[in-house]
Specification:
In chain A, α4 runs parallel beside α9 (192-209), α4 crosses α11 and α9 packs antiparallel against α10. Chain A has a domain at 40-251 and 265-272. Helices cover 74% and strands 1% of the residues of chain A. The longest helix of chain A has 27 residues, at 214-240. Chain A has a two-stranded antiparallel sheet with strand order 1-2. Chain A is mainly alpha-helical and 323 residues long. Chain A has helices at residues 2-5, 8-13, 15-35, 41-66, 74-90, 96-120, 125-143, 172-190, 192-209, 214-240, 249-261, 273-292, 298-322, and strands at residues 149-150, 242-243. Chain B has 201 residues and is mainly α. Chain B has one domain (60-200). Chain B contains 9 helices and no strands. In chain B, α4 packs across α7 (143-162) and α6 packs parallel to α8. The relative contact order of chain B is 0.12. Classes of the chains: A mainly alpha (323), B mainly alpha (201). The interface between A and B is large, with 37 and 43 residues.
């Protein structure tokens, strides 16, 4: 095993990521075996649909976790953006393209709010993101008068937004997500933004004394996270069509689990976009697999909860082992 | 090899940029010039002044400490660009001017780096350093091990990963010497980590 781990290609790709890919393939066969049928294109399509919007949330929260913080508001923010933009589109008759931009704007505004609360007002991210989670749920409900937001279904006028998820059988959502993931990798590893975000997670005081405006860069991590939640809302409405107020909490756990599973350290300073991407695919396949095995979707919450606890435990253990 | 007079030693022990500037000016006048005073003045400016941020207090050498820890991680996938960035950082810290000033210049640079590294290790005592899960759990007793890992990653680890052992030799020495004086077990802890990481290679 040590020899395998020390091969240059394996070291370059990252042993953990290869293990995650192995887990993904293994899960496919295990779910196929226990469900009594091979998971087919329909199951894969369902998994990819979920991966589309979950992926944007997970990519965004990776930036926040890299600073050593956390954002529990991403799921409700995504739903809130879908609710507000949906109502603007359907009830107020705004053009579709403006409604889609509004999804991103709403997400971005919540990111700005979180950034101000955490970076400039010094609130613990744990608390402030809980507050904005409630705020997002409330704003979404109030704006829609606790009514569902019904986006145009396939075949109806103004339904081209669904091309962000699938177009003539091509999983455009996955391609869209991949492009954004590559951009995030470049931002995190090759730009000043990413370097400062990671450095803040690694040693905030040293970065501050170096003359870097830590508050600005930390706030930017939350803004990126919120904006990606807003982009996630576009794919979310593309998949779901009917957005219900008050939802979204369950996506937080899934997104955070994807990040930690992918090798992003909860202590900050270490982040892997590639790992997060594979983590998202694992979580999405998990949900589809559980349903294929005949369990109710509720069981997915139990399993995801266990996975989050195990992933965080493994993160702490592996940090301790490195010492 | 890098012995200093008592007065210069006091200069390299201090943290405060403004006070160091006053000391530097005084020492340059009072102490006999070993041929590196011009380099010391250049190092001071290179470290504490940034043309892009005029008037703002900066410490560009301190930033390289935390930057090198991050570059160690980046270098796993982007080795060449990390090596390029390390070379640029070394040039920023005056490595490119060593030939002009000879042994005295090397001594001046070594102690300037030691000063920056010592400042970095002091920041590791701040409450925000490695806060733990969700920023809520204290790092507790593992803090010392974290600092050791940072020291190794920013020096030997990065040098090996980017294959810049020769170029980074002086930096590595400043970091390992600076870490070794932190506590009585520090040198031993660092050597043990280095052995462990070397075996992994």
């Amino acid at each position: 095993m040590e020899n395998f781990k020390n091969k240059p290609l394996i070291k370059k790709l990252g042993f953990n990521r290869i293990i995650l890919c192995g887990v993904l393939i293994l899960m496919y066969f295990v779910f196929s075996l226990f469900s009594g049928r091979m998971l087919g294109s329909g199951d894969i399509k369902n998994a990819l649909n979920m991966a589309d919007y979950l992926g944007f949330l997970a990519l965004g929260v990776t930036f926040v976790i890299a600073t050593g913080g956390i954002d529990f508001s991403i799921g409700p923010v995504m739903v809130c953006a879908g609710l507000i933009a949906g109502r603007l589109l359907v009830t107020f008759g705004w053009p579709l393209w403006i409604a889609l931009i509004m999804c991103v704007v709403v997400g971005c505004l919540f990111g700005v709010l979180n950034g101000i609360l955490v970076a400039y007002m010094g609130l613990p991210s744990f608390i402030s993101s809980m507050a904005s989670m409630m705020l997002a749920k409330g704003v979404g409900s109030v704006f829609t008068h606790v009514q569902n937001s019904n986006w145009p279904a396939s075949g109806e006028a103004n339904s081209w937004y669904k091309y962000f998820v699938t177009y003539n059988g091509i999983p455009t959502g996955l391609i869209f997500l991949l492009v954004v993931a590559v951009l995030c990798t470049i931002i995190l590893n090759k730009t000043k933004i990413g370097r400062y975000i990671l450095c803040i997670g690694s040693n905030r005081e040293a970065v501050r004394l170096s003359g870097v405006d830590t508050r600005k860069w930390e706030a930017l991590a939350y803004i990126i996270c919120g904006t990606l939640a807003g982009i996630g809302a576009i794919t979310y409405v593309g998949v779901i069509t009917q957005v219900q107020p008050g939802l979204g909490d369950e996506f937080n756990n899934n997104a955070i689990a994807s990040c930690v599973m992918g090798g992003t350290s909860m202590a900050g300073g270490v982040a892997s976009i590639g790992g997060t991407f594979i983590g998202v695919l694992i979580i999405s396949l998990l949900r589809v697999g559980i349903q294929a095995m005949g369990f109710r979707p509720d069981y997915q919450y139990i399993i995801t909860g266990i996975i989050v606890a195990l992933a965080v435990f493994a993160d702490i253990r592996s940090s301790a082992r490195k010492k | 090899m890098f012995e200093q007079g008592a007065r210069w030693h006091a200069y390299y022990r201090d943290d405060d940029p403004a006070y160091r500037r006053r000391m530097l000016d005084e020492l340059c006048m009072l102490e006999p010039d070993d041929g590196a005073n011009a380099f010391r003045l250049w190092l001071y400016k290179a470290r504490y002044e940034d043309a892009a941020r005029p008037g703002q207090p900066v410490d560009r050498f301190l930033f390289q400490c935390v930057n090198f820890v991050q570059l160690y991680g980046t270098a796993r996938i982007f080795r060449r660009s990390a090596a390029k960035e390390v070379r640029e950082s070394l040039a920023l810290m005056g490595f490119g001017r060593l030939a002009e000033f000879g042994g005295a210049g090397e001594r001046a640079l070594y102690w300037e780096l030691r000063n920056a590294v010592a400042r970095y290790f002091r920041t590791c005592e701040s409450p925000g350093y490695r806060r733990g899960v969700f920023g809520l759990v204290g790092a507790g007793e593992s803090r010392g091990a974290h600092v050791c890992r940072d020291a190794w990653e920013m020096s030997l680890g990065l040098a090996r990963r980017t294959r810049l052992e020769d170029e980074m030799a002086l930096w590595n020495r400043a970091v390992t010497d600076g870490y070794a004086v932190l506590d009585p077990q520090a040198a031993e802890r660092f050597a043990a980590l280095d052995r462990k990481m070397s075996e992994k290679r």
